[in-house]
Amino acid sequence: MVIPLAVLQNYEVVLPTESVFLGMKLLTIFKNKQQFLVSVLITFSGGFLESYTFITRDGVFANAQTGNIARMGICLASGDIRKTIRYCIPVLSFVLGVTLVIRIRNFFDINKLNTIHWRQLILLLEIMLLLFVAVIPLEKWDVVATVLISFVCAIQVEGFRKIHNAVFASTMCTGNLRSGTEHLNCYFQKGELTHLRKGLFYYSINLTFLFGVIVGYYLTKLILEKAVLFCIVLLLFALLSFFLISGDKEENSG
């Protein structure tokens, strides 16, 4: 079918203006900054909880489980069954937390739920559990507090694994340190700015974790078990920031 030239002349071709492209670029920058803010807030919270459990909950690390597994092995080798069980409990709690997040994510994907993002549900669950931890008295119920915080750290590290297509950990540093060093070496070899940005990102995440540990140390020494309320404030800000993010499918599912 041939359309007469006279008819075509009556139509105007509307092309995107420069202002539209600028608006899209600003929106992308805003989204990236919001995602980075969320990663900083939850990583600071992860470092804070590491200090909190070590100081107030009988020297147990609730974030990464390597230390607890090592201590469990030492206690088992020395025949101290009671301490072996003590260090085994937070490890099992961590496993359950990761499993729960996987099930929640799969449930949202299968049922195509979009009213609320599954990561928002994870943050709400973290906040509620930490509120309960804040009222658990010291010494008498330390095991319960440690189990809950291990569970919180597990759902956080599994629920927030990726930002800007970079896999990271918000509750431990070894993987971030390895990835950051790898990207920096790639930058020095190839000169690609992408590797520099990713390397600096990983190192900034570890520095954020370190600052969280330091603040957690002083605040926990000051107000003891109630110091965990500070983490709740951080997670609330992360939740509010998350409402402003409309990430793509890869960011949301990773």
Q: Which structural category fits the helices and strands?
A: mainly alpha
Please list the strands of the largest sheet in the order they lie side by side: 1-2
Total of DSSP H or I helical runs spanning 4+ residues: 10
Q: Report, as a whole number of angstroms, the end-to-end distance.
A: 48 Å
Q: Helicity range of the residues? A: over 70%
Tally of individual domains: 1
Based on CA atoms alone, the radius of gyration comes out at 23 Å
Summarize the main sheet. Answer: 2 strands, antiparallel
Number of strands: 2
Low-confidence stretches: 11-15, 19-30, 246-253
Shape: globular
Order of helices and strands: HHHHHHEEHHHH
Estimate what percentage of residues fall within beta strands.
under 5%
Provide mean pLDDT, rounded.
Answer: 81
Which key features would you list for this structure?
mainly alpha; 254 residues; two-stranded antiparallel ribbon; 10 helices
Question: How are the SSEs placed, and which strands pair?
Answer:
Layout: H1 5-8, H2 18-56, H3 66-78, H4 81-111, H5 118-134, H6 142-159, E1 162-163, E2 166-167, H7 174-190, H8 193-223, H9 229-243, H10 249-253
Antiparallel strand pairs: 1-2
How would you characterize the overall build of this protein?
There is one protein chain. Strands 1-2 form a two-stranded antiparallel ribbon. It is globular, with a radius of gyration of 23 Å. The relative contact order is 0.17. The longest helix has 39 residues. The protein starts with a helix and ends with a helix. A hairpin with a 2-residue loop joins strand 1 and strand 2. It has one domain. The C terminus is likely disordered. With 254 residues, the chain is mainly alpha-helical.
